[in-house]
UniProtKB/TrEMBL annotation:
Species annotation: Kocuria varians (Micrococcus varians)
SMART domains: CHAD, CYTH
Name the record gives this protein: CHAD domain-containing protein
Region ranges (Disordered): 217-305
Signal peptide coordinates: none
PROSITE patterns: CHAD (PS51708), CYTH (PS51707)
Record's compositionally biased regions (Basic and acidic residues): 217-233, 243-254, 263-300
CYTH domain ranges (all copies): 5-204
Residue ranges of every copy of the CHAD domain listed in the record: 304-618
Length: 628
């Protein structure tokens, strides 16, 4: 059996090696029930290069306690959650196939092996209110062995987790405030760690973690000499918190330092060692960890960063996000299919704009495979758009114009088609071809396939070149004329349908189809320019203010162009529903009514399209620099 839950919890570090003296009888507004003790052991698994950790995912086999079994803990943005799976009866120590499948986009089929074993003595205290249990306070004494390094680390931590999901934000805050008052009185501080596995591997913890064996190992650095909390590339590991996640801990320390300073008459004896003290802002203080690590690497070798480094950062980030949203799709997370499609299109956009810097055969091959992936994801996304637009159309109708029964039939049909499309996405994500695509993208992100030209460009020249390429593509699409004889022009199926459905003054069906194709391709080019601009910004590469502004202009026109393309998607969906209702003998009045409205919107949008494209070209040329 698989269960999924969203955690609402706070963690705290407890000083010293002994059990803290918690005065739980002083808990304000709440009482504490009889404690229950457990001895638990958990073995954590990962790939050889710790891909799960980098994705902020932890897989463990827990033995003992109330949740014995296999767990997948994950963090997606600010949301954290767990997936639980009961052990297999025939082989309880074997990772269940369902969990392997869930992780496939992250592991790419690589073997999962033990990386750490964590033994925990847990004391659970139920936090009770007048109408039952509100939370659970867990006190954990932890001994963790890093299986690869042969190091055992120990620490004590507390965790307060809400037991009910019906609490208001105010009630939840009161619970945490009551618990924290007692914990802080015992010397506890908000934890900077989000996972035991990160501490087990020496990736974070600081003074809270003690080295038990071997005794000669320094607790302030990783086994390879890295500072705690950093990967080899200088970035935060998957199990460790980013700067924003350390906020509560740092705010607590700031408040405490301020209080101590006040007591000592305004003098701060430990000022030089204060971890919360602000340092002067340097020229590169806005750079992320990966950028700094890359720059430091080249500085150490006596070389300056190049366009190849920028391209590596862009691709590494996007491939990582693609894999993360793959995991979210497999979890069934909201909006995950859309986000996965966005990342696939962003990667294709970067490849298209970087044609001079990636081997031609490599770029073309990856672009084609990403296009096939986007097509599968696009079908599912079109169903999402149709469901959203259907609801808008139904709510806009006068009362009684569309019967309740007819509206329900349309909603059920939309839901059914959406489920079919989602199954198609899951089949694609499990396919060997898709997994090979992810592997090949990771190889490219590592620089396998870059041309020598990439290393010859400075980061600034590279950024200007690729964003300029993307923006010129927008202009080229928007300025494409509709030919007098459009019979030989290749158009998409959607454009062909539009040409058959509506008539425009002075245009035959084929010319109408070509006009829609131009609009659709312009919108896609505008999106591509936006993706390239955003990828460059994340990579800390400056393409110039005017080009960045031009990319923003292109983005501004996306919505105007999208109204027309979304209307085309909805028109085709309603036409499909009309055919289905006719075959099954259901009432087609509601479908016909909505279809007529959508055809009208589509035609009006196409009539306005030439003016929109002209304005886009004019604004884009005004924003772009006249010359480099």
């Amino acid at each position: 059996m698989v269960t999924q839950q969203v955690e609402i919890e706070r963690k705290y570090d407890v000083p010293g090696s002994g059990k803290p003296a918690l005065k739980l009888h002083k808990l304000e507004r709440f009482t504490v029930g009889e404690p229950v003790e457990h001895d638990m052991s958990a073995t954590y698994y990962d790939t050889e290069d710790l891909q799960l950790a980098r994705a902020k995912v932890a897989v463990r086999r827990r033995r003992g306690g109330s949740d014995d079994g296999w767990h997948v803990k994950y963090q997606a943005g600010s949301a954290r959650g767990e997936v639980h799976h009961d052990p297999l009866k025939s082989a309880p120590e074997r990772i269940p196939a369902a969990l392997r499948k869930l992780l496939l986009g992250l592991t790419l089929g690589e073997e999962l092996t033990p990386v750490a074993t964590i033994d925990t003595h847990r004391t659970e205290y139920p936090v009770l209110g007048e109408d039952g249990q509100y939370a659970e306070l867990c006190l954990d004494t932890v001994a963790a062995r890093d299986e690869r390094a042969g190091i055992t680390r120990a620490w004590t931590e507390c965790e307060a987790e809400l037991s009910r999901d019906d609490l208001t934000e105010k009630q939840a805050r009161k619970v945490f405030e009551a618990v924290e008052a007692v914990l802080y009185a015992a010397g506890a501080t908000p934890s900077s760690s989000v996972a035991k596995i990160a501490r087990a591997l020496g990736q974070d913890g600081g003074d809270a973690v003690r080295i038990v064996t071997p005794e000669h190992v320094e607790s302030t650095a990783g086994e390879d000499g890295r500072g705690a909390g950093k990967d080899a590339d200088g970035s935060s590991p998957a199990g460790a918190p980013e700067d924003g996640e350390r906020k509560s801990s740092e705010e607590f320390r700031k408040a405490k330092n301020k209080k101590d300073k006040k007591k000592s008459g305004g003098k701060d004896s430990g000022e030089s060692a204060d971890p919360t003290r602000k340092t002067p802002k340097t020229k590169d203080s806005g750079k992320d960890a990966a950028t700094k690590a890359s720059d430091a690497k080249h500085a150490g070798e006596g070389a300056q960063p190049t366009g190849a480094d920028v391209l590596t950062r862009m691709l590494t980030r996007l491939v990582g996000e693609l894999q993360a949203w793959d995991f979210a799709v497999r979890l069934g997370a909201e909006d995950s299919v859309h986000q996965l499609r966005v990342r696939s299109r962003a990667l294709r956009s970067v490849l298209q704009a970087s044609r001079d810097f990636v081997a031609q055969e490599v770029a073309e091959d990856l672009e084609n495979r990403l296009k096939l992936l986007a097509r599968v994801l696009g079908d599912a996304r079109d169903q999402e758009v149709a469901r959203e637009r259907l609801e808008t159309l139904l709510q806009a109708q006068s009362a009684g114009l569309v019967s309740t029964a007819a509206a329900q039939e349309l909603r059920e049909a939309a839901e059914h088609l959406g489920e079919d499309a989602a199954r198609g996405v899951r089949r694609e994500l499990d396919s060997p071809a898709y997994l090979q695509l992810l592997k090949d993208l990771r190889h490219l992100a590592a620089g396998q396939g870059f041309t020598e030209e990439a290393a010859r460009h400075s980061p600034k020249k590279f950024a200007r070149t690729v964003l300029g390429t993307a923006l010129n593509r927008v202009l080229a699409r928007a300025e494409t004329p509709v030919p007098e004889d459009a019979g030989e022009v290749t158009v998409s199926t959607m454009a062909q349908v539009v040409g058959e459905r509506i008539s425009l003054p002075g245009k035959d069906p084929r010319q109408t189809a070509v006009a829609f194709e131009i609009l659709h391709e312009t919108r896609k080019a505008a999106k591509s320019a936006r993706y390239v601009s955003e990828a460059l910004q994340h990579a800390q590469a400056k393409a110039g203010k005017k080009r960045v502004r031009a990319a923003a202009v292109a983005k501004d026109y996306q919505d105007d162009l999208g109204v027309v393309t979304d209307a085309a998607v909805m028109e085709e969906w309603l036409a499909r529903m009309a055919r289905s209702f006719q075959r099954t003998g259901r009432d087609r009045y509601a479908v016909g009514l909505l279809h007529g409205l959508e055809l009208s919107d589509l035609r009006n949008g196409m009539l306005e399209a030439p003016e929109i494209l002209e304005d886009l070209v004019e604004d884009l040329r005004d924003a772009l620099p006249s010359k480099d």
